[in-house]
Amino acid sequence: MNIKHAFLMLITPLFLAACDRDRITNICEDTPQYCQQLHADSWCRFERTALIRARKQQSEQPSDVHDYDLLNTLKIYHDCLDPLLSIEYTRRKERKTDKVDAVYHAQKAMTQLTADTENSDYPYLLLWHWQHEGSLKAKARFIKLADRPEMHSPDLQNILATVIMVRDSKAAEQALHFALSLYKEGDTIDNNIIANLLTLVTRQQRYEDVWVWSRVLDQLEHEENIELARIDGYAQFNASQQQAMQEQVERILTQLKQGQYKVPSTQRIN
């Protein structure tokens, strides 16, 4: 999984809930500044609603978290409208003009908010500056946050691992195991964490670990087909070895299901 795909997975539409027309109407009537410079017709309705709510929350409760949410909703809104600009409105040209203005103002707002958050050490904002602005300084600052509490989430640990995997495979593996240990019972596990772990041990030709993690990934119904027969071609194991490895698979699956995954002793964080 590449870094861009991993990052895009972080851009969850936090505000794309069902539209409460009365509430949005009230927001626009009571605080019209949150509803200005947006298009008027029904296209991208949910994205517009999300942006209004994000503007309001960021204004009333300024924080890095809400800055990041606003950047995301601005981008989602912008990217929803932008393809529509190629549509020729033969009857009502003002519709296109309306959207052109909205796209322009959304881009302008993103540029300003990106500049305003340049010095933030909030992990998701650092990722934003790296992915969207190409800031290597932001990338380096993100890596330096590795052991900080704010990095203790599965998605951030997974991205950290993909960033450092080439130059520090040991630290990357530690991050991946730690990511799995952060899940609680009932959480939905991101199978890409296990896929990255499988990639890492395969590169290192650790074939027992390859056997184990390929089975774990297969049991979790990864979206990409796991070719177990091809994987088994890397090394041959007798029946006794396979039984022991299968027991390890079952232990891992149970721990993940119960939210009690144990980081291997050789990978534990001090």
Describe the protein in words.
The chain has 270 residues and is mainly alpha-helical. It has helices at residues 3-10, 21-30, 45-60, 64-81, 93-116, 123-133, 136-144, 154-164, 169-181, 191-203, 207-219, 228-232, 239-258. The protein folds into two domains: 3-126, no CATH class; 154-267. It has 13 helices and no strands. It starts with a helix and ends in a 12-residue tail after the last helix. The model is unreliable at 12-22 (pLDDT under 50).
The H/E string reads HHHHHHHHHHHHH
Give the tally of structural domains.
2
- Report the strand count: 0
Mean pLDDT reading: 88
The helix content is 55-70%
Q: What class, by secondary structure content?
A: mainly alpha
Radius of gyration: 23 Å
Number of helices: 13
Q: How many angstroms does the end-to-end distance come to?
A: 28 Å
How big a fraction of the residues is strand?
A: under 5%
Using the alpha-carbon principal axes, give the shape: elongated
Please give the largest β-sheet. none
Instruction: State the low-pLDDT regions, or none.
Output: 12-22
